[in-house]
From TrEMBL:
InterPro entries: SAM (IPR001660), SAM/pointed_sf (IPR013761). Pfam families: SAM_2 (PF07647). Coiled coil: none annotated. It comes from Clytia hemisphaerica. Transmembrane segments: none annotated. This is SAM domain-containing protein. Residues 70-128 form the SAM domain.
């Protein structure tokens, strides 16, 4: 056996490997790497088809016949191959608004992409309908309302009828989303500013309807108190530190009982949607 200090012949050959240098072939070019910018936002513009569907009146769509669904919807969204399927299954406007993916699959639309695309178009229709339902006016009115019972005092009552522009007014609007009111100061062209308040049903705490009798019980008026936990600290100031509710917004109006029912129903519907 060789001594420990000697090197084996096979390892000696490995140390004698000839080193060679490699050079690029003349005429060959290597382009510089181009950097692609980072996408920070998604496109926000909608296509012409989407704009068409969004601008459709949901009430009119619900009244469409089967032929109108084909001509006004399928052909406009480039799904004409499904004309016979819609005709055979009698899909009218009302049925169109209720279609789900399992319905489309049962009808014979097998392509997943087509089903997803059509459901997206139907969702746009439903979105428009929902927006109309939530923003439509359920009740509107103004205060002070007609009648001496809804005047602050006798002098206020006289001014209301002799100089209407000298009296501040509040315009109310009840929708499916909340309650709006706009305060217009007297002689707004020269004094004061118009302010608008919005009370979302998500922040409603309670409603209270009161019937008050004035002038020895000969005059009566209705007062509707809206207890809302407003984000605006000024509007949410409490009567006293120990009070359970904030200072209420008050509506003095002969139709207050009707308004109370409308608001309570819309409030309950909004809570069901949020849950």
């Amino acid at each position: 056996m060789a001594a420990s200090g000697s090197v084996s012949p096979q390892y000696t050959k490995m140390t004698e490997v000839k080193k060679e240098e490699y050079h690029a072939v003349q005429g060959t070019s290597y382009p510089n790497e181009e950097k692609v910018g980072v996408i920070t936002s998604q496109p926000t513009e909608t296509s012409g088809v989407e704009n068409y569907v969004v601008n459709l009146d949901a009430a009119q769509v619900a009244a469409w016949s089967v032929q109108e669904v084909i001509s006004n919807f399928l052909e406009r969204v480039n799904m004409t191959y499904a004309n016979e399927l819609f005709m055979a299954n009698k899909i009218n406007g009302k049925s169109l608004m209720l279609l789900r993916e399992d319905h489309l699959k049962e009808m014979g639309i097998q392509a997943i992409g087509d089903r997803v695309y059509m459901l997206e178009m139907i969702q746009l229709l439903k979105k428009k309908k929902k927006e109309l339902e939530t923003t439509a006016s359920l009740w509107s009115g103004e205060t002070p309302a007609e009648g001496c019972a809804y005047s602050k005092n006798c002098w206020h009552c006289v001014r209301r009828y002799t100089c209407p522009c000298c009296v501040s007014r509040v315009y109310w609007k009840v929708t499916g989303q909340g309650v709006f009111y706009r305060k217009v100061p007297p002689c707004r062209q020269h004094f004061g500013t118009v302010s608008t308040e919005y009370m979302d049903y998500r922040f409603f705490k309670d409603l209270e309807l009161k019937e008050e009798h004035l002038c020895c019980c000969f005059c009566q008026r209705y007062r509707l108190q809206l207890f809302v936990d407003d984000k605006d600290n000024k509007a949410a100031e409490r009567v006293d530190p120990g009070s359970a509710f904030p200072t209420p917004h008050e509506l003095f109006h002969p139709e207050a009982p009707k308004v109370e029912k409308i608001i309570r129903n819309a409030w309950n519907a909004a809570r069901l949607v949020s849950e």
